[in-house]
């Protein structure tokens, strides 16, 4: 998770900054950075779309049946989902 924060903030800002790119990465100066925001967002959009498709196609789920009691405190779980806030106030 820390690597994701680093690449999302620090690496993107460094590669988007023309001064950083001209001083450390390029031999000839240009007015813009190496990685514009549109290219960065497009890359990560396609990356997550491909990763999601691969997970959907390759990962097989198993049928899990909980043993014993269920988590719901009443018979009608939909009622608990709709009126859960009032139940929380009763508990507090």
N→C terminal distance: 34 Å
| Residue share in β-strands | under 5%
What is the oligomer described by this structure?
single chain
Q: Tell me the total number of β-strands.
A: 0
Helical amount: 55-70%
Anisotropy-based shape: elongated
Task: Describe what you observe in this structure.
The protein contains 5 helices and no strands. With 92 residues, the protein is mostly helical. The chain has a domain at 2-58. The longest helix is centred in the middle third of the chain and has 22 residues, at 37-58. The radius of gyration is 25 Å and the shape is elongated.
Layout of secondary structure:
Blueprint (H helix, E strand, L loop, with lengths): L1 H15 L1 H8 L11 H22 L18 H6 L1 H8 L1
Tell me briefly what this model is.
The chain is mostly helical and 92 residues long. The chain has helices at 2-16, 18-25, 37-58, 77-82, 84-91.
What descriptive keywords fit this protein?
92 residues, mainly alpha, 5 helices, elongated
């Amino acid at each position: 998770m820390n690597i994701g924060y680093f690449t999302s903030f620090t690496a993107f800002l460094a590669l988007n900054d023309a001064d950083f790119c001209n001083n450390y990465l390029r031999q000839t100066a240009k007015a813009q950075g190496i990685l514009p925001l549109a290219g960065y967002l497009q890359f990560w959009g396609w990356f997550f779309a491909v990763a999601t498709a691969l997970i959907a196609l390759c990962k097989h789920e198993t049928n899990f049946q909980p043993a014993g009691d269920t988590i719901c405190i009443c018979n009608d779980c939909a009622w608990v989902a709709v009126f859960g806030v009032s139940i929380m106030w009763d508990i507090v």
